[in-house]
Amino acid sequence: MISVAVIGAAGRMGKTTCDAVEAAADLTLSARIGSGDDLLAGLKGAQVAVVMTGPEGVDDIVATCVEQGVHAVVGTTGWTEAGLAKVQAALASKPEVGVLLAPNFALGAVLLMRFAAEAAKHFESVEVVELHHPNKADAPSGTARHTAQQIAAARREAGVAPSPDATTAALDGARGADVDGVRVHSVRLRGLVAHEEVLLGGPGEQLTIRHDSFDRISFMPGVLLAVRQIAGRPGLVQGLEHYL
Ligand SMILES: NC(=O)C1=CN([C@@H]2O[C@H](COP(=O)(O)OP(=O)(O)OC[C@H]3O[C@@H](n4cnc5c(N)ncnc54)[C@H](OP(=O)(O)O)[C@@H]3O)[C@@H](O)[C@H]2O)C=CC1
Ligand SMILES: O=C(O)C1=N[C@H](C(=O)O)C[C@H](O)C1
């Protein structure tokens, strides 16, 4: 039995995670931790924490998990370099603890990133569009940043030139954000959950790779897989693809 504390338990992802943990025969939900709760008390007895808070203060939460010897499976996006450094510093004193920062736990999204990185080596142009519900805190999405970074790395390694672009934007933001040289566009629309398209263009053709999460249950197989594996994967890992 693995005992699991969920941090951000009252949120959209937190609630779905608590349900998934409670439904799993090999896991036990040791604590539901919300924003007003005592984190140290909530972590007592937990082997793994699943962190599904917003971006504000998430670095301190994960560093506290590490200091307490609790492995952290983290879905929260919107990480800064300073936040990552704080977690790395905590891990330096507890190298046996595992931290997984996974911008997307849906298997289809992980595969989209892999396929997009492969395809981007063969097309002149590539841009990323992410589409989410309007309550999302951060932009671009963690998934889109991770996708763009993987695309950029694959194109660099293959010696592909930057996507051609002769446009001068008349308004700030008209061409989206620049993530490692890849344009990323963020749509926020009532009715959506989490969606992403990678558009790839070559002379006379286009390839579109799209993933849709219609329900937050799509993230749960990845969350549970990570909870089951993390004790055997010490240190900081970024991306669920490293667990598959
Ligand atoms: N990796 C993945 O596959 C996925 C990641 N996400 C990411 O997960 C995160 C959460 O998303 P979502 O569930 O939609 O957001 P919500 O706003 O619905 O939930 C966040 C929850 O965290 C709580 N919270 C905030 N600060 C703390 C704290 N210090 N301690 C404990 N709880 C806290 C909030 O409580 P309060 O309201 O009281 O502040 C709220 O209940 C986002 O960063 C999102 O991008 C989302 C979907 C999939
Ligand atoms: O906030 C969300 O909803 C989501 N956040 C993650 C992200 O930023 O990529 C994962 C998924 O897209 C849903």
TrEMBL record:
MF terms from GO for this chain are: 4-hydroxy-tetrahydrodipicolinate reductase; NAD binding; NADP binding; oxidoreductase activity, acting on CH or CH2 groups, NAD or NADP as acceptor
Q: Name one GO biological process term.
A: lysine biosynthetic process via diaminopimelate
List where in the cell it is found: Cytoplasm
Pathway membership, UniProt:
Amino-acid biosynthesis; L-lysine biosynthesis via DAP pathway; (S)-tetrahydrodipicolinate from L-aspartate: step 4/4
Q: Does the record carry Cell cycle as a key word?
A: no
**What CDD domains does the database record attribute to this sequence?**
DHDPR_N
Q: Which residues form the Dihydrodipicolinate reductase C-terminal domain?
A: 108-243
Q: What is its main location?
A: cytoplasm
Q: In which residues is NAD(+) bound?
A: G8, A9, A10, G11, R12, M13, G75, T76, T77, A102, P103, N104, F105
| Residues that hold (S)-2,3,4,5-tetrahydrodipicolinate according to the record | H133, G142, T143
Record field: catalytic activity: (S)-2,3,4,5-tetrahydrodipicolinate + NADP(+) + H2O = (2S,4S)-4-hydroxy-2,3,4,5-tetrahydrodipicolinate + NADPH + H(+); (S)-2,3,4,5-tetrahydrodipicolinate + NAD(+) + H2O = (2S,4S)-4-hydroxy-2,3,4,5-tetrahydrodipicolinate + NADH + H(+)
What the entry lists under Pfam families is as follows: DapB_C, DapB_N
Q: Where are the catalytic residues?
A: H132, K136
Q: Which GO terms describe its cellular component?
A: cytosol
Start and end of every Dihydrodipicolinate reductase N-terminal domain? 2-105
Annotated NADP(+) binding lies at: R32
Transmembrane domains' residue ranges: none
Q: Sorted alphabetically, which keywords does the UniProt record give?
A: Amino-acid biosynthesis, Cytoplasm, Diaminopimelate biosynthesis, Lysine biosynthesis, NAD, NADP, Oxidoreductase
Q: What does this protein do?
A: Catalyzes the conversion of 4-hydroxy-tetrahydrodipicolinate (HTPA) to tetrahydrodipicolinate.
Quote the subunit structure annotation: Homotetramer.
Protein name, entry field: 4-hydroxy-tetrahydrodipicolinate reductase
UniProt lists the gene as dapB
